[in-house]
Every structure is written in structure tokens, then in C-alpha cells.
Amino acid sequence: MRRHRQLRRSAAVLVAALVCLLIALSIATTMIVESIARRGQLKIELHARQAELLVQAGRGRAVVRLAASADYDGESWAPELGDGLNATVDISVEPDDDGAIRVTVATQYPTDSPQAVRRSRVFLLTNANPSAEE
């Protein structure tokens, strides 16, 4: 009889230990999954910020090129970023109806990723001879 009680206690302790282990494993798994999801979201936000900076760089490039040549009508630019990822910046320049110059800059970063971020902006340059300070 005494041995039977001892066996029951040992089984109860073993079951309690297994339940605690399962709870700890469940918490750890949840934390890892959330960490991976946050890392992915941070990566997307980083790519979005880089794409915005590339749009601004494309605008600046267009302003400088227009200052150098009034015949500049845009280009497709693949800047070297140094992070191992490729980007494309497409710049188009068109005269606007009211004498301004419409500069459209579209970018994709990273170029060869299924999760590439695309940004596009249209800028109106009102100065007939734009400068880099604009």
C-alpha cells in the first residue's frame, strides 16, 4: 500500500513537471514567433525608408541634370548602395502645361526581392533653370 502511494506521488510530480515544461515551451515558441514577425516588419520598414531616400536622391539627380542640360528627359538609374541589395530609380521629365517642369521619380528597393518596396513621387519644378538647392 505504501509503495502504491509513493508511485502515485512520483507520477503526479512527473505529470506536473511535464505540464510546466509544456507551458515554458509554449511561451518560448510564442516569443520566437513574435520576434521573427517583428524582424520581418522592421526589414520592410527599413526598405520603405530606403525607397523614400532613393526618391529624394532621384529628384536631386534630376535637378542637377536639368541644370546642366535643358534637354534632359530622364533616365533609369541603378545606384550602388553597398548593402548587397539592388535598387532602380526611374526618372522622367516632362514640361507641364503652365511652364513648370514635371519630374516623376519611381523607385523599387530591393529590385530582386518578392517583398520589394515601390515608391513614386511627382515634383513640379517652377524655375526655368533649376538648381541643386531647390
Topology:
Blueprint: H1 2-68, E1 74-77, E2 88-95, E3 101-109, E4 117-125
Antiparallel strand pairs: 1-2, 2-3, 3-4
Gist of the model:
The chain has one helix at 2-68, and strands at 74-77, 88-95, 101-109, 117-125.
Overview of this protein structure:
- Helix content is 50%, strand content 22%.
- It is an alpha+beta fold and 134 residues long.
- It has one domain (2-125).
- It has a four-stranded antiparallel sheet with strand order 1-2-3-4, covered by helices on one side.
- The protein is rod-shaped and about 100 Å long.
- It starts with a helix and ends in a 9-residue tail after the last strand.
- Residue stretches low in confidence (pLDDT < 50, at least 5 long) are 129-134
Specify the biggest β-sheet.
Answer: 4 strands, antiparallel
Topology, number of strands: 4
Globally, the shape reads: rod-shaped
How many domains in all?
1
Helix and strand pattern: HEEEE
Bin the strand percentage: 15-25%
- Discrete helix count: 1
Instruction: Please estimate the helix content.
Output: 40-55%
Structural class, judged by helices and strands?
alpha+beta
Q: Strand sequence of the main sheet, in spatial order?
A: 1-2-3-4
Can you give the mean pLDDT?
Answer: 87
